[in-house]
Design a protein that fits this description.
Blueprint (H helix, E strand, L loop, with lengths): L55 H18 L16 E3 L4 E3 L8 E4 L5 E5 L3 E4 L4 E3 L2 E9 L10 E8 L4 H17 L4 E2 L3 E6 L5 E11 L12 E9 L5 E9 L7 H10 L2 E2 L6 E3 L4 E3 L1
Antiparallel strand pairs: 1-16, 2-15, 3-4, 4-14, 5-7, 6-7, 7-8, 8-13, 9-11, 10-11, 11-12, 12-13
Amino acid sequence: MGLFSRRPENTTDATPRYEDKAALRGFGGYEPADAPRARPRRIRPRSKPLKWRRAPWFGLVFIALVAGVLNALGVGKPRPASPTPPPAPLVVTPSPRAAVPPAVAGWQPVAGRDGSYAYDVPPNWVPAPGTQHGWDGIRLITSAFLGKDFCAQATLGGAGVTTEPLADLDAAARKAATDLATAAYSGMPVLGPGSDAQVPKADGTMIPARMVVSEVTPPATGECAARHALVVALAFGGNSGTSGVVVAYADSDRSGPSVRDDLVRIVRSYRFVPAAERSTTTPPPTTYR
């Protein structure tokens, strides 16, 4: 039994008695039980926040519930280590390219972007119609190369198309040949006499052209340096004050015995292509691993 002993509420007891001393409020600890007094007030303990030590069962249930959810989601379960996949190879798909028939049997055509013009190169050359190359003073488009990556850094020869701001065809051809020889081989060319040529138009008619063959002896020395080189330029048009020029060049010592004839034939094969002979082709993708 506790320290408090209270009378039942709303009950009258005629027998005088004393309550437990610990519960009395009088001086000295004694107070008649039937003495007039105020009704005792019920004292309720202040509610306290729930703590784990007050309700350990609740904490255990909560932890078990969270652990069950995490286990259901796979958290905390050992997972086999997945091997790192190797990098995917790089696949480059070339853009569609204009295709035209060759004018020289057995050679490869090198066509402009829309196929409106083209020239041909021998089988051992590499057409690169989407490539622009050149040096300070001259830039060539619709390119082709001979012995690409020769000596791990250069080529044995190349070809391409440019323009010169000259109406005189002979002057335009000489300027292009001189600019290329000076820039590519660092030497002054010996220009031969010019010769007349013709360029076929798309409608079958011909326009006049002028061709110049030049030789150059480069001053550079070394295993990869050219000892002698040839530059051939053919200029055409010129009516609007600007001439078109197709240029072909090569190391004459290492490009084969027919290199001179090949360069002349390359520039002479330049022509404008009829629309009926043009088509579009997409080269196969190239994979780099």
